From TrEMBL:
The lineage of its organism: Bacteria, Bacillati, Chloroflexota, Tepidiformia, Tepidiformales. One of its GO terms (molecular function) is oxidoreductase activity, acting on paired donors, with incorporation or reduction of molecular oxygen. It comes from Tepidiforma thermophila (strain KCTC 52669 / CGMCC 1.13589 / G233). It comes from the Bacteria. InterPro entries: F420-G6PD/mer, Lucif-like_OxRdtase_Rv2161c, Luciferase-like_dom, Luciferase-like_sf. This is Putative F420-dependent oxidoreductase. Gene3D superfamilies: Luciferase-like domain. Residues 20-301 form the Luciferase-like domain. Transmembrane segments: none annotated.
């Protein structure tokens, strides 16, 4: 069995943790130098008051790298109008010469984030579905007309077109997310799942793809993990617990069963159970003392996954 494609989360500029723009760029360079397969960036407009634009972060990363893949995980598509998103994504894909994958999600953990953008959070799934359809058309057609419940376009053309057909990965755990991935996506990214639940999710994605007349095998599977790597397992747990509790404002015990931590080998063995069930893509949110250390520990996990594959 082949090792998965491993990406590491590129954390955006954050005054709360002292992360600077130069630190983010250096982390991107370091990830490429260490042979990591991809960089992922999260996305929020105002998540409990904090924001990070995934497309901006990855555009900066594209400018200082040449090989490494770039992906949002996940971009909150329902918060935006799809026409400017189509342009931004196409331009990023051109600048990176075809290295970009659009990973989308519908969010909703902080409803105030949606209301702040003038979006009813109850409509986020339907908005995402319409936006995906619009993006695919704007990337391949001119004079696009679309009339939906949430978006209306009349003879809209966007240039540049992407460097290549931009893959769209759909993130989430709900039945609606699985349906969206199977019917509209090129891939599915799960989070906070057991290996068994991930396997079941991939079966559902395949069934939805088949219902839509698509090849079930064409929708690739992936998982995103918060993690921390340290020789001392208790120290690793403390690092990842602190990061998750600060982000989600929930006790770590809610996430612990889904979260690998410990040595690089222990983390890789935890992840391998998902690889055996179809996870071809693995995104790591490594919570370490510095961005540079986060990249280095992710590289160690990647190496351990390759050892398991041999």
């Amino acid at each position: 069995m082949e090792a998965p494609h491993v990406s590491v989360m590129l954390r955006g500029w954050d005054i709360r943790t002292g992360t600077t723009g130069e630190m983010v760029l250096e982390a991107a360079r370091r990830a490429e130098a260490l042979g990591i397969d991809g960089l992922v960036a999260g996305d929020h407009v105002t998540f409990y008051g904090f924001g990070n634009d995934g497309l901006v972060t990855l555009t900066a990363a594209a400018a200082v790298t040449e090989r490494i893949d770039l992906k949002t995980a996940v971009y909150l598509l329902p918060l935006r109008h799809p026409v400017p998103v189509a342009l931004q994504v196409a331009q990023l894909d051109q600048l990176s010469m075809g290295r970009f994958t659009l990973g989308i999600g519908v969010g909703g953990e902080d409803p105030h984030e949606f209301w702040s953008c003038g979006v009813d959070p109850r409509t986020r799934g339907a908005r995402a579905n319409e936006a995906i359809a619009i993006l695919r058309r704007l990337w391949t057609e001119d004079g696009v007309t679309f009339r939906g419940r949430h978006f209306t376009l009349e003879e809209v053309t966007v240039y540049p077109k992407p460097f290549r057909p931009v893959p769209i990965f759909v993130g989430g755990r709900s039945e609606a997310a699985l349906r969206r991935a199977g019917r509209l996506g090129d891939g599915y990214t799960g989070i906070w799942l057991t290996p068994e639940r991930f396997g079941e999710a991939m079966e559902r994605v395949g069934a939805f793809a088949e219902e839509a007349g698509r090849d079930p095998g064409a929708v690739e599977g992936g998982m995103q993990f918060w993690t921390s790597v340290a020789a001392d397992r208790a120290a690793a747990r403390e690092l990842v617990a602190r990061g998750m509790e600060a982000t989600y404002r929930l006790p770590f015990e809610r996430f612990e069963r889904y979260t690998p931590f410990g040595t690089a080998r222990e983390v890789a063995e935890f992840i391998w159970a998902f690889v055996e069930r179809g996870a071809r893509h693995v995104n790591l949110i490594t919570t370490q003392a510095t961005p540079e250390e986060a990249i280095e520990r992710a590289a160690e996990v990647r190496a351990a996954l390759h050892e398991l594959a041999d």
